[in-house]
Amino acid sequence: GIQEIHTDQEMIGKISAAGQLMQCSASLDVLFLLDGSYSIGKGSFERSKQFAGRLCDALDIHPDRVRVGMIQFSSTPHLEFPLDLYLTKQEVKERIRKIVFRGGSTETGRALKYILRKGFPGGRNSSVPEVMIIISDGKSQDSTAMPAMQVKERRVVVFAVGIKFPRWEELHTLASEPTEQHVLFAGDANDAANGLYSTLTGSVCSTNAPGCKVESHPCERRTLETVKELAGNYVCWKGSKQPNAVRASLCPFYRWKRVLIKHPSRCFRTVCSDPCDSQPCQNGGTCVPDGLDKYHCLCPLGYGGDSHCAPKLSLVCSVDLLFLMDSSAGVALEGFLRYKAFLKRFLQAVMGQDSPMNVGVAQYNDTVMIPIEVGQYKDAFSLMKRIDALNFSGGGTLTGRALQYVAQHGFRSAPVFADVQDELPRVVVLLTDSKSQDPVAEAAKYARDQDLFLIAVGSSFMRAELTEVTGNPKQTIAYLDPQDLFNRIPELQRRICSVDNPEGCQAQSLDLAFAVDASAGIGLENFLQLRGFVRSSCSHFSINRDVTQIALVVYGSKAHTVFALDTHTSNSAVLQNIDRAPFLGDSASAGRALLHVYGDVMTVQKGARPGVNKLVVMLTNGGSMEDAAAPAQQLRDNGILVFVVVIGDAQRDTLLRVAGSPNYLIHISSYEDLQYYQDLIIERICEEAKSPVNLCKPNPCMNQGVCILGSGSYRCECHGREGPHCESRVLRGDSPRSPVLPLHSHVQRSSGGLQHLSRTSRHTRRH
Predict the structure, then answer these.
(1) Mind giving me the DSSP string for 526-567?
(2) CA-derived radius of gyration, the chain
(3) Which of 11, 71, 336, 573 is the right S-S partner for 7, CB 3.0 to 4.6 Å?
(4) How far, in Å, CA of 639 to CA of 557, rounded?
């Protein structure tokens, strides 16, 4: 780097942030001298212009405050615009952009003499402070020392800003004293803007903002110079006084080398207290400053209940909950510590002050211990502290024995009152990554017969054994990698509370589209399984005009709508027509499929209902997803969620970009396992059906109509059209209106779609 401030990266960030936000507001004449010589070159000249425009952002340009003028100099100075010509920041920056590179020799001294002779063109005759900002590489071909001194004697504050590879000695000659505060580098515009503001603060500009102060930092500037160095002595041949004779001799050999000459200095910069210095984000959240006094928190999964990352989840269900944690040699110390961290993160997320659940922890290897009895700790802090003290055991993995033991001894907590038995549902969450060395099926059945609700969490390769424990694939949570384990916290919370809370979304209004990969990469046999999955899933919804509408799209290189949202109005009709979905057998383009859903399925013309949540479920093997990220984002931007269900090996990063979040990506190892995930997928769809909806996303207005939100309603602002959704042309003599549609109004449909309502509206107006 040409300039380097010796401080830590956090401080550099603060200097840059302050440089972007500070603004000098005072009565001030600022004249830029822009070096337009050949030594600068056209490229660096354009960068000088951009830099000058950036410095203008740090000036409060106004007729009564800061005025700006500019001179370009090379062989001769040329007035680009005087100080009294452009009086707004926008005008000044626009004029700077239009300045043309002139070229020529570097005559900085002549430009300074021009100022001495003419003064500040269009200035206020020294009635206000005058500031000159020279942007140059400091390689003048004439003398600058005397004219620079004379300019400064007239009480002009001179800043010298280096561009390209500047010669700092000359810039120090040009700049006002103390030179450390008046020499800047254009390579870092935010730093230079900060330096300019810091120097002018207190003397010319208004005082610093609260919480901001000017600090001195050691810095170093470097100049790229060409130097001559002795490379060595080599044999050469010289003439002799004797005729026809030469003699050998040693001759010095020199070479030219480009080196960086260092110039130690000090840089004075304004630093403001960072709103993130107080570490306002809790529970591992990351604080991101928004200006000088605002911030926002990026919260980990399970947090975000408020702006400071308070727990977002909560176990609203009352349960006795026992975590059974594998502490055998099979999981190793690393796996045991991972489960401890997961357990703490989960409990921090769900356990509030008035949490209705009682929690205990057991750990097992070839024996079982219950170091934390169910209900022993009522506050999260004490519970976390006790979990921290749990130690790894090693030994064998007897999961069956552990399940039988906790069924008999795991829930011995005393009743709440002496005469009232605690009748809370009892839930056991098994955390294991190791195959059991004893049978689990019989022990798990015994536990379930004791009315224990079993949930198993483990790595994906353990799925079969975990399902054998739970007796229900829906109660098995298999993760792909360590990070994915922590992404399953919301799912575990739902599983625990489903013990006494039946699921389903029969009464939720929803516009749902299935997009099924029917390409050759899937194959006919697997496509038939996907089609069967869609048929089975549709039976979970109440399909009619008022509740759930379902569309089906299959895609290969192109997308094909099997039926639209408003095609079928009953479960039986939908189920009968799913089998009509054809296998296409060509290449796949998921991006085209999502664009088709956006433009031809989730539209008012095709039956999409304003004020109803909209969701696309994409079933794919993960191939040809590279073009799908942008269309998926377009759908999300218009209020349509995208769930990606991928079967088999696929690039997780690409799939995450399409899904937008791990919460909306479900990875299944094989087509045979697809059936086990149906309840989970339906559950997530139903959760989204309950979320708040934006009535204007996607836009319900046709023919370029603009949707305008009201209180619990919206209206379409039409141009050359009329009707509630701008669906009809304006007939001669009619005055187009935009009726306001309430949140729960449903447009009456007939075989003519929306035309029925449109004709009624026109009839009413004529009447």
Answers:
(1) HHHHHHHHHHHHHTTS-BSSSSEEEEEEEESSSEEEEE-TTT
(2) 37
(3) 11
(4) 26
- Check if the beta carbon of residue 687 is closer than 8 Å to that of residue 694: no
Domain range 9-220, CATH class:
alpha beta
Does 507 have pLDDT greater than 60?
no
Q: pLDDT for 584-635, tens place per residue?
A: 999 999 999 999 999 999 988 888 888 888 999 999 998 888 889 999 999 9
Q: Does CATH number 3.30.70.270 belong to domain 275-312?
A: no
User: How many C-beta atoms surround the C-beta of residue 181 within 10 A?
Assistant: 20
Average pLDDT over residues 701-715: 79
Percent of the chain with pLDDT over 70: 88
**What's the pLDDT band for 270 if we cut at 50, 70, 90?**
confident
Cβ contact 223:168 at 8 Å? yes
Count helices and strands in the chain by DSSP H and E runs = 22, 28
Instruction: Decide: residue 319, CB within 10 A, 0-12 exposed, 13-18 middle, 19+ buried.
Output: buried
Q: Would you say 570 and 544 are in contact if contact means Cβ atoms under 8 Å apart?
A: yes
pLDDT number for residue 518:
94
**CA–CA distance, 133 with 183 (Å, rounded to integer):** 10
170 and 142 Cβ atoms separated by less than 8 Å: no
- Cα–Cα nearest to 190, from 302, 116, 306, 270: 270
Q: Which CATH superfamily is domain 320-414+422-498 in?
A: von Willebrand factor, type A domain (3.40.50.410)
